[in-house]
Amino acid sequence: MAQQFEKALSPIPPRESVYGVTPSCVTDRAADLPGMVFLKTKDLFPEMPEVFWPPENPQEMDRVTREALKDVDMSKIKPGDSVNLLASHHGWTILGGGPYTQMLKTLKDVITERTGCTDIRLRAGVGLRFRETEEYIKRFGLDEYFGKGKARGIAPIDEGIPIETEIGTLYGLKRAYDATWIVHTHNSDVREIHFHRHVDRAVKPFSMSYARIESRSTYHQNLGPRGANFTARSIFNSEFVQSKWAFACFFVPTPAGVMGVTANNDLYALNREVTKINMSTYGKMMTLLGKLDSAIAVLDFCCPVPYVFCGGVIYANFCSANIDLLDLDQPLPSYTWYTESYYDEDEKPLLPETPPMNPAIKACVVNYAWVGYPSVFWAKHTPTIIVGEDHAKLFREDSQNIEFPDYAKEIVPDLNTAMQHAYEMAKTDKVILFDGAAGGINCSESLAEELMAKAPAVSKEVDSTLMPKWLKQRGLA
Amino acid sequence: MRIITTQATVDPAICTGCRTCEKVCPTESIKIGDDKKAHVNKETCSGCGNCESRCPVYAIKLEPLPEQKVIGVDWTKAPKQEVIDLCKKAHFHPEAVICYCTGTRAREIAASILLGAGTPEEISRQTGVRTGCTVECIQPILRLLQAAGVDPGKAPGWQWYGLTPTNWDLSDEIVTNPDHKKFYFQADRELMDRVTDAKEGGK
Hints:
The complex is a heterodimer of chains A (about 475) and B (about 200). Chain A has about 475 residues and is an alpha/beta fold. Chain A contains 17 helices and 18 strands.
């Protein structure tokens, strides 16, 4: 008997932002298309760790954050000191942003309760959308919660400071470090695994959200596709950063939902903890998606093209799912900036072994996505359909994406037309929606059935073969 | 080559003359005038949006241009072998894309330098490189300038601070440290060298 699936979850409404189209332009959502269902991660992988629900409940998030902070040593922080909570934009894209917001609020409260310190600031870093965290600070009332002028967005082009490291001078953002102490607050999901390859994943923001352009460019252009995250390690290990280091507090999502919060004075211990969690959770979801032969991807979320996600996995990871991103013996992901730079002017790879963008993606429909990340490579390498001239105009006027519409196959007026064309182009009825669904995946029933059929073997393969290899490569076996 | 579709405009009624825009502009196209207000040089503004997105009082907007403009340096105007040699000296394949927003390849930057550009800002004005996200390609530009023996001096503001280490600069102590095995430094270096030396594929 065919399995019964739940109706697809409704995604969060489009967000008002300088990086997206006006919300009223997003008239149809892919989750409402006929035949779309919600496939729970727990149905695919019943062994996934327990999650708490509803994570949107501020009291519950406050409770788990306080619990995580119980054993953290805050004795360095004195009443007259200042503390910067260093945050990153992505936390606000998970489950609508409420859980991450509450973690930050609770952190502020607990530090004051435990140390008597009242000068606590929020410094929220960004990717390549320099106003993004300013928007979140306002939307979630963090400017009021932290007090006038104490919650600020920081961008990689802001004033910098040199940081002497074991590999030479790198550069951080002056405002990130303008307090006596820093607390590293982040989210543990794998996210840009194509960049960090899950080597020191928890350390990465020291070379990104809190770093100047010089350090980011070192990461993406100078050290190599697997060595890149040594940039972060070098900055974090520097005498300067260590002189300000207090502790880390991470929001811990998995493809099944939110596990909770973890905190530690030892960032590398926290990194080991989340690495193992992620390999056994995201590792399974990514491996499963890599088993698909054919699918239409629909992007329908308030993030740039690579960062829209489903079941915790971002679209960029699906684009590289034809290789094992956790296997460090694989030098190049299908997508990373090193890979992208290694294509000649005829769009042929300079090295024959360069893996192509996931050939299982037969068509990509952009129903709703933000600008502010260079995405032309995607349109060049996957057949792309843009929904709405407003969307196309947004991309054309974004300095990072001017040619994105030029490389799209077509721009169509509405989602239904886009899907008709995608079905014809892709010759499959299997559809996966990157619409921010948490705890599972919105997809077509046919795709849900295929994923359910393949999941048990993937689970076994990860547990018995892949996990031991992944851990060994990172010295964690 | 860079297509330009927007340019910055300043609302003088809001501008406070704080100079943040000046310090973040990669093409030095916005300056505070004697009137203590920001003014945009429409000839050189590429519409990257740095000034707009860092202005603390939201006085700057990006406006669509009635007709798009195109800027760039024809790399074939520089001596071909010198372009290739300069790229390789900086560890880049001449066709390697070094700016993911504009698609600018290493050879265009090399040609710009060989034809006389001496600073990242001048290179950006000529080629459009680093006028998309304005973040990720600063090191390749500085590496190519260094390889050409050109000292760019100091940036006029916060546009850039300096060269940073590359894989080729790492000490043996770093590369061979057993704790660093997971970073695959040597294997990545070999990979990048193979890319640099790969046969030229394009036209």
